[in-house]
Fold this sequence. Notes:
Elements: H1 4-8, H2 10-19, E1 37-38, E2 43-49, E3 73-79, E4 81-88, H3 91-98, H4 103-137, E5 140-143, E6 149-150, E7 158-161, E8 169-170, H5 186-200, E9 207-210, H6 214-220, H7 222-229, H8 232-240, E10 254-257, E11 262-264, E12 270-272, E13 279-282, E14 290-294, E15 296-300, H9 311-314, E16 320-324, E17 327-334, E18 337-351, E19 358-360
Helix pairs in contact: 2-4, 3-4, 7-8
Amino acid sequence: MASLEQILYFRNLTGVIESIKAGIPCPLPDAMLKSHKQVSGNRAEYFKITGTRQVARIVQYGSPAQRQGLREVDSVPITLMHSFEDMAWPLSLMIALTQMSELKKDAKGTEQAEYQSRNFKKRFVNLRQVAAMQALFTGILYWDKNGNLLPSSAGAAASVDFSVPAGNKTTVGGLITGWNTTSTDIIGQIEALQAKAVAASGYPITTAYYANGVASWIGANTTALQYLKFNLEMGTQYVKNKSRIPQGFGGIANWIYAGDTFYADSTNTNRVIMPAATVVFTPDVDEEWWDIYEGSFLVPKTVTPQMNQSASDMLSEANLAEVFGQFGYGQLSMNPPTVVQYAGDTFLPILKVPGAIYQTTPT
């Protein structure tokens, strides 16, 4: 039989956050939602390094070494996003939880508590997924003055710009354009973009996320249809489902539909995440160009604070834990008797190499 302390213990609540399934469509691979960097607090930095493409020099055998200068390294300071919300349990739930002598009531209370916890924590899982998708698909995150994530700059009070180069957006300087025209050489444009990506950043394109309508352009395009005709497996895939682009099309290994991505804003209005007529090209997921940084937050280990302790004891490791990323805990309040449940997250998607992706609108 679970006690109130067991239900609300910070490790249990944190575990709920990390294991639940989000309530929004998210086509990103799991690897893009994993963090490889944790920092204390909410501030961090990363190093931006330009890799060399030069080759070593030839010298006479036995000659002194030719000194090579160090590569320039830029330090980029960042402030992580931080979310923190609370939820008070209703008195009816408290009554169900406190009737420990009646197994049925206790089980019912535990079930309600777990349901409320999971539903509450979905907000934070959703936030992380939406932030990652917006960073990848649009290159900018916006918030209003109340901390609500926004789909565009309208009403924004703060923003994070991930500095995707202007030349990597819209038509990529005229390289990716006219896909809605039947005579456009879509295959040739994709091949040209792949060559440009390797030359510009060294990261080959392997994945394309696409919005509504893009697949229909393929079916109406002369060059694309000819390509599918001579690639039987891809052609069969497209015939079976003309709303999806076949895997491997144009030499891109992974075509991922993202036209159904959305989230509900503060007014419960659904907001589309991937803009219409958009195709976003990326390399394989790699922490060299993409990551999610996690910060930390201090979380109480006990449900009821020990007020007779000294300040130093209350702030000791016996009472507080440093939790990275998503966290949750509960505290007992007596006016009126209830539990206030807290949850939050400290994180930020990071585009370490903004030039490795291409956010195109190929119309």
